[in-house]
Amino acid sequence: MKINTDLLEIPVRNLRKSGTRTFLTLIGVIIGIAAIVSLLSIGQGLNVAVEKQFESLGTNTIFVIPGGASRGLSTIKLTDSDISQLENVRGVSTAVPVYGAAAIMEYNGKKMNVQVSAADGKKSSIFESTGYFDVQEGRTFSKNDSDAVLIGDKIAHTYFDRNIIPRKIITLNGQQFTVIGILKPQAQSFGGGPNTGTSIFMSLEAFNRIAKDIYPSIIFVKTFSPSDVNYAVTAMKDILEKKYGKKSITISSADELLNQVNSILGLITLVVAGIGGISLLVGGIGIMNAMITAVLERTREIGLMKALGASNTTVLLIFIIEAGLIGLIGGIIGVLIGYGLSIIISTIGSGAGFALTAVISTEITVGGIIFAMIIGIASGLLPAIRAANLDPVIALRYE
Amino acid sequence: MLMKSNEMIRLENVSKVYGIGEVEIKALDCVNLKISANEYVSLMGPSGSGKTTMLDVLTTMMKPTTGKVFIEGVETTKMTNSELASFRGKKIGFIFQTFNLLPKLTALENVMTPMWINGVARAEREPRARALLEEVGLGDRLNNRPNQLSGGQKQRVAIARALALDPNIIVADEPTGNLDSKSGVHVMEILKDLHKKEKRTIIVVTHDESIGKQAERRIFIKDGQVVGNKGDGNKVCQLSGTNKIK
């Protein structure tokens, strides 16, 4: 049997001539693919956002967190000599402890809970590339800023009934501080960094005024190069666990954390996309239903085609190609709409302060279209086989 | 295998049996039949006589239980289904009582259908279909769909379609059954022309005496057997197991 372009033209014509039914069947596939594509696109976008966060810290960054996996419940008090020991580990260029505490902020007659973070001014250059200290108003830290604070965007604009602007005085735990800058609003991150919108940053000296008996909640360690990371992690673990006991400290390289977060995100994305896949399943059933009905309605037509010389294979191919085309066209439109949706979602989300981007990737595009086509062909297979095996004599006389 | 010159269709000891054992129905019983080139034949018989089965078998739409069917000297009973389909498409043109046009296609597209099925070159299809429709007087109806045509017009489209591959054999099953008398006459005129002018072999199956007698030769079928025709007797068939066709 010759392979010729009729086998494409005739199914296309058949689909066109059953316009409404084809359209309705298409909708099922389009919705299914659009759901999956948009979810995958957003999911990949989340991965990208997280990676960006980690990138700004650098791949040669290590996080040392006292306590086990649960932050904040730790009573391990790392000392300055501990920090020095860490800095002496081969490959480590600097270890910057960050101190944190909750405090009560008072301004304009109102009191609110805030999170205060402080780091040694001499070492804080590690954070410069992260953009955490980028200001939208005022200025960032310079020397002799022992009473200065940087406050987050949300604190400045939403916490109190009045906006806070630079040079204003605020009170933290009864102590007065001068606001020197308002931080730029930062997109909500997913495990990649602090939520600067509701934070206040100050120098270590300033911090000593509002919190006694302070100890680091996290230590950012930088190595000279990414290749130093693995050794440094092991060595630092040894040192600290010897002193404080096993499982007393969690040390993760930026890469590790990134991988962990990405794999969780990846899993969530897959599960959610899988749920979206349910609607695609329904779409596939729709195709099958449409094809079964088509075969039934076209029974006499099939008998006629066989009388006119069509082989069983020809009939089979015509129906399979019709079903496959519905999948293909539905897949293409679904992918386009899916991306459109994800762009809309990410635009709205970004506006609301979430780090959402829509990722358009070849894999999602090609995968989505091919998957839809396969669903089409698979759904149309049984009806097509039925059509191919119809007895022409009986089919021709079918009422 | 000797082919008698100008033999178009030959049935040799053909039987068609449905069911098994006690519930056997012999639709065709040991039929021997020869139709020559350029003959105009009518097949007649009451309902239940087996004439429909006879039609199905001699057009190769159905394989007999035993016996052989030859079309233009070629034995078809041993062909595979796909060989048969292809062979039939080129050798036989069909006309049905209920027209069997594809409802969503135009007259032109209907006539082109056998062409794409049987691999006619693309460039030839439309000109040929146009010419055929003009021949049957429907040159101004090329783009009409069946629901925009009268019964007589539909049957003429069907005739044009039957001629698409220029077959030697035209088979018409009750061609005027669904037509008014005027259209019926017109259709029979066309069949006559196909016979006389174009020298094709015409087989008309009918129960209508007035239609049947327009043929040169009438073949009567009763109880699955051919009765009272020229040239063929009812030979005694050997219904042995080895003759059975799968």
Tell me what you see in this structure.
The complex is a heterodimer of chains A (399) and B (246). With 399 residues, chain A is an alpha+beta fold. Chain A folds into 2 domains: 6-54 and 260-396, no CATH class; 77-247, no CATH class. Chain A has helices at residues 6-17, 19-57, 80-88, 153-159, 204-210, 229-244, 254-297, 299-307, 312-351, 362-388, 392-396, and strands at 61-66, 92-107, 110-119, 135-138, 148-151, 169-172, 175-183, 199-203, 216-223, 249-253. Chain A is elongated, with a radius of gyration of 31 Å. Chain B is an alpha/beta fold and 246 residues long. Chain B has 7 helices and 10 strands. In chain B, a hairpin with a 6-residue loop joins β1 (7-18) and β2 (25-36). The longest helix of chain B is centred in the last third of the chain and has 16 residues, at 181-196. Chain B starts with 6 loop residues before the first strand and ends in a 19-residue tail after the last strand. Residues 229-233 and 239-244 of chain B have low confidence and may be disordered. Classes of the chains: A alpha+beta (399), B alpha/beta (246). The interface between A and B is medium-sized, with 25 and 26 residues.
List the helices and strands and how they pair.
The complex is a heterodimer of chains A (399) and B (246).
Chain A: H1 6-17, H2 19-57, E1 61-66, H3 80-88, E2 92-107, E3 110-119, E4 135-138, E5 148-151, H4 153-159, E6 169-172, E7 175-183, E8 199-203, H5 204-210, E9 216-223, H6 229-244, E10 249-253, H7 254-297, H8 299-307, H9 312-351, H10 362-388, H11 392-396
Parallel strand pairs in A: 3-8, 5-7
Antiparallel strand pairs in A: 1-9, 1-10, 2-3, 2-6, 2-9, 4-7, 5-8, 6-7
Helix pairs in contact in A: 1-9, 2-7, 2-9, 2-10, 7-8, 7-9, 7-10, 9-10
Chain B: E1 7-18, E2 25-36, E3 40-44, H1 51-58, E4 66-71, E5 74-75, H2 81-91, E6 92-95, H3 107-117, H4 122-135, H5 151-162, E7 169-173, H6 181-196, E8 201-206, H7 209-212, E9 217-222, E10 225-227
Parallel strand pairs in B: 3-8, 3-9, 6-7, 7-8
Antiparallel strand pairs in B: 1-2, 1-4, 4-5, 9-10
Helix pairs in contact in B: 3-4, 3-5, 4-5, 5-6
